[in-house]
Amino acid sequence: MRSFLEFNPLRNYLSLVHLSNIDFCYKSLRNNSNFALSNFNFTINEGEFISILGPNGSGKSTLIKLITGYLEPQNGKIKLNNKNLNDYKRKDIAKIIAYVPQIPASIYPFSIYEIVAMGRFPYLDFTGFEKKSDKFIIDNILELMELTHLANKGINEVSGGEAQRAFIGRALVQQPKILLLDEPNSHLDIKHQISIFNLLRKLNIEDGLTIITVMHDLNLTSIYSSRVLMLKNGKIFLDGDVNTALVPKVIKYIFDVNVEINTDESNSRSIFIKPDLSLS
Ligand code: ADP
Ligand code: MG
Prior knowledge:
Layout lengths: L14 E10 L12 E9 L3 E5 L6 H9 L6 E6 L2 E2 L5 H7 E4 L11 H6 L14 H13 L15 H14 L4 E5 L7 H18 L2 E5 L3 H7 L2 E6 L2 E6 L1 H4 L2 H8 L2 E6 L5 E6 L6
Parallel strand pairs: 3-8, 3-9, 6-7, 7-8
Antiparallel strand pairs: 1-2, 1-4, 4-5, 9-10, 11-12
Bound molecules: adenosine-5'-diphosphate and magnesium ion.
The site of adenosine-5'-diphosphate (ADP) has 12 residues, from α1.
């Protein structure tokens, strides 16, 4: 399968999110001014499918949380559709941006249906009740996520992968323009990894949903992304296409791991990790 960078008709470079000169430091890190992100400049364009890669602690989740408005930078500006992010009401951001957290968890025993239905929150009126049209969307997404048979089960009574699909479902019922996902496949079996990513690809191509996802799987990254952002120590090391980013030298530098990459005649690549097995 080719990267669809070349044939995505929606890739028209309309800027949706713009981060300029962002510095962000968690309170507990401030004393030694160890910035989670520093002097960070980044633009998300409409119709892109961006994968964010980088070692643990490189700032991937922090970047995602800044874009959602959950975290506020100490310096710099974040603009959403040319308006400052902090000039938006939370509900209005939620109609544009949906977020699937890295470790989806719920302390309350909500049912799968309730978790997915929460995504309609920005659209409910003062009564707080779902309308028929909301229920229709929720049922559709439950079906799409293969969760209909689990709708009444508690979120804490299903497998990690099923819970992960419920949180992706919650994001999709928000009917966002931009979907941010933080390691969405960490709990999914390989069949569901493919089915979820095929669904994301379909939403990206057919509905123009802009997708930014934190990834660890280099092969999935190479198949689905139109753009790859590589982070190291809270900075952008590389921002480019799959052909530039997924090469042995870059992967070695970013992750300190050797890989072998085979490319077939349709330019589809397979990336094999070559661990150092010496016992020294
Ligand atoms: P990644 O998602 O790439 O693994 P994070 O964005 O979660 O990395 O973290 C970036 C840096 O910020 C790391 O050094 C991490 O330890 C630190 N960090 C993350 N979350 C917090 C927090 N809530 N409080 C303090 N430091 C944090
Ligand atoms: Mg993370």
